[in-house]
Design brief:
Oligomer: single chain
Order of helices and strands: HHHEEEEEHHEEEEEEEEEHH
CATH class of the largest domain: Mainly Beta
Strand content: 15-25%
Mean pLDDT: 78
Number of domains: 3
Amino acid sequence: MIDKHVETKYKTPSLLNIVQTNKAGKMLAYIALYFFIAVIIFLIFAPWQQTASGTGRVVAYAPLDRQQFIEAPIPGRIVKWHVREGSTVKKGDLIVDISDNDPMYLERLKEEKTAVEMRIAARESRIESLKARIASINASMNNAKSAAKSRTRMSMDRLDAAYQSLEAAEAVHKTAILNLNRQKTLYKQGLASKRAVETAEMTEAKARTDMNRAKASVSAAKSETIALESDQSKVSTDGLASIEDAKASLASALSDLASAKADLPKIEASLSRQHSQSVKAPRDGTIMRLIVSQDGEMVKMGEPLSILIPDTNERAAEIWIDGNDMPLITDGREVRLQFQGWPVIQFSGWPGLSFGTFGGHVVLVDPTDNGSGKFRVLVRPDKIKDWPPGKYLRQGVRVNAWIFLNRVSMGYEIWRRFNDFPPAIPMEKESKEKKE
């Protein structure tokens, strides 16, 4: 009896009793399951902000306000530096003095300039003289042509008069011949005396002489007319030849003048560079570095002497974006920025929960890459919250950027990332394309 009682009291539990879950465990399991389902539903329908990330640096917005080199305007040697690294300068402040290697070079340039100016004055005087000569030759040629024409007309008038005299002499000679023949006939018939015949012969001889004289006058008048016409042509030819010769001299003088005037700007530029031996600051800024630091060091024209960082309040962030995201980025896109040295808590999908970031917007997307598949995006500050002051946020500070694209559900975003699909095209871009 005692053994049975002990066996009943200490009976081993069955396997079903061992694996059976108690009510508290079941409750925890149900809670965990419901919580997991709720999380999945939340993740599927929760909003998510898609972004395109990139890195870059802070730069000045205007290219002229960015880092620039101050170069040597002339070849020479460094005489004295008036600044040091970190010096703040105003526009026009003296930075460095440069001296030419040849101390007499400036005087020789001045003498050369004077010689060129005198040569220009001489060429201009010669040009005026040649122009006056051409005008004088032209006027003289016109007068000579007018005189030659007048002489030719007078010669032609004399030729006409000679022809008329010849016609009259021929008529008189013809009448004298008829009278002579008549007197000879009458003399043979005994009706006229020998004296009448001799008188008729003398009259015919005189008329013949007058006719020959008239013919000679006509011939002389013809020769004179031809000679005067030739002289008129010669006057025109000689005048034109003289004018062409003067024009050739004028062209040569103009060429010499142009050559002299071309030499003058070169000399003036050299003089200007020599007067620029004192290098001054082109704008307000800070001397970042002295590249040529030793006094007496030789420099070439155009060689960098120092680096100037201009003062500016117009800043921007220069961000480099992967080429896969570039088609989705347009001007005006909102951007969140993290500057190097500023603590930040960034939730890419929920920008409202971020802390320490600064706002901006895209103002420029380069039309081509940098040769490595990266595209430059320029970001300006937004008007809601300004960036840190310039003395803290200097040019060159590193930047992390998140460019906002489109708002989607978190489930879609997880599915997209699992399948390695690109982000969705922004809705603004799609609507603009449909309107167009």
